[in-house]
Amino acid sequence: MHLRHVKYNPNGGPDGGDGGKGGSIILRGNHNYWTLLHLKYERHIFAEHGGNGGKDKCHGTDGKDVYIDVPCGTVVYDAETGKYVCDVTYDGQEIVLLKGGRGGLGNFQFRSATNQAPRYAQPGEPMQEMTIILELKLLADVGLVGFPNAGKSTLLSSLSNARPKIANYPFTTMEPSLGIVGYRDNKSFVMADIPGIIEGASEGKGLGLRFLRHIERNSLLLFMVPGDTDDIKREYEILLNELRQFNPDMLDKHRVLAITKCDLLDDELIEMLRETLPDDLPCVFISAVANKGLDELKDVLWRELNAESNKLAAVMAEDTLVHRDKDMTRFAEEMAEEGEDEDIEYVDVDDIDDLDDLEYLEEEDD
């Protein structure tokens, strides 16, 4: 609010300028990033406040927007409610996470014939705050699904240049691995290896729950069951049930079953096992160590990846991908164990309106 008083014009009238708008927080997809590690030590991000308006109808400066570069495949959740917020899927995609508030109008905007010297100005919109969870889901064509020591890492190292850890004990794979599998005529596809799944992984047992999300985006799932298993079909059903419990939409994806370690089996036993395998999906007998059946496996994977029904599903899923809300009780327990984010208060969705009213009341009392 300002009234103009200068020489030869003592009653110049109102000339207070408008305030500038606040900066926005914008998420931007960047294909040069593969992890969220660059945000590990930058937990608090602030955009600039808008500048105040000045005399002589000077407009306040606009706050600078802040861009947060994240890898493609990043999903954002509200840390207080667990609700899904947005999804960054391609390079260059920009999503306004928090929009900067509009600047208030100066008293110059309120002049009129009956109010020629308004002595008030409009305040700017209050800033917004938000605590979010960034979760990366790998973008790959083929996702490997199997129990620990099923030969997933061995297969990935045989088909690609990826070198995941391989050892003769369970849970040697502690983090997801990506490999580019070469095919005929310089064609290729991306394969993702995740830690082994055990029965009950959808309920939090083992490491499966933490990494099951990475195969939500894969257009094709490759189930791997060792050939020396007592009941191959039963193990496949257990894996399928864990995916069903985690996210029922994952059952709509194309599936291929690979029987691994078949170098331990003779031809007669392989023919006997074929009769017990599921009839609703392609089955391939392979041995990554003996390099047996790998070409046939790549042919089957390429055929399923380029199937017309799979292409249509992939196109439709780009904009209709459904994300489940996070269970914040389990997340709160994990944060408490790690000693992080103790200042976050987890609330029910039904109580949010009351909390907002309480905050406004506190601001008025102050």
Account of the 3D structure:
By secondary structure, this protein is of the alpha/beta class. The chain has 8 helices and 14 strands. Helices cover 23% and strands 20% of the residues. Strand 12, helix 3 (232-246) and strand 13 (254-260) form a beta-alpha-beta unit. The longest helix is centred in the middle third of the chain and has 15 residues, at 232-246. The radius of gyration is 29 Å and the shape is elongated.
In terms of structural class, how would the helical and strand content be classed?
alpha/beta
Q: What fraction of residues sit in β-strands?
A: 15-25%
Number of strands: 14
Biggest sheet strand line-up: 10-11-9-12-13-14
- Report the span from N to C terminus: 23 Å
Shape: elongated
Order of helices and strands: EEEEEEEEEHEEHEHEHEHHHH
The number of helical segments is 8
Helix content: 10-25%
The biggest sheet amounts to:
6 strands, mixed
Can you tell me the residue ranges where pLDDT is under 50 for at least 5 consecutive residues?
312-320, 349-366
Mean pLDDT: 77
Radius of gyration: 29 Å
